[in-house]
Predict the structure of Putative Nudix hydrolase NudL.
Amino acid sequence: MTITYDDALRDRIRANLTGHDRRVVSDPTKRHAAVAVVLVDSEAGEDRVDPAPVDDWIAGRPMPDDLDGRMVDVSGGAAFLLCRRASRLTSHAAQWALPGGRLDPGETVVEAALRELDEELGVRLSETTVLGLLDDYPTRSGYVITPVVVWGGGRLDPEPAPDEVVAVYRVGMHQLLREDSPRFISIPESPRPVVQVPLGNDLIHAPTGAVLLQLRWLGLEGRHDSVDGLEQPVFAWR
């Protein structure tokens, strides 16, 4: 079942974020970044066609037998914008990500998230569209990420910057409520569980997976569970 994109959903998410005691990470050894969790409307069946071979994106990483790496059958109703990063990038190339990046000097997390949204997807929104912030997530690659939840106000019309984003998808928020989500696995490199969020026929890992899991737990369900202790897979540590 899809989730209706309406004022009631917007008000519920805003209230859940406002009533949350947000976890802030202060680590002078890490750089600060922000991502935009942009909530938009979508239509069932409008899924885009992957513009490059999925095998190139998977890059040899193991996939469960029930998944093939394709972002299919995900649109419909209230959705969020999810990007496939360009393969030519020097870090985290070809990975799934939310639009975002490092803070410029003197910039707030909200300003940074909205600026990156404009630069990466050509979507320009004002600070009045911000519903609130999720918890900070410290990454293995040296960042503290602050997710900024933004109400897009409709469908929007992203125009991805080709040097940074190879594809952008409208992923229905109902995908976050799948019975097989979330998944947790163990790895020998860390005592912490690795989180996996199934979307379409692929798995989204932390940090993006952790942000999306809290969007479900806090934004949709009003749960205040922490996600900053959830681990990233080793391929995302660099």
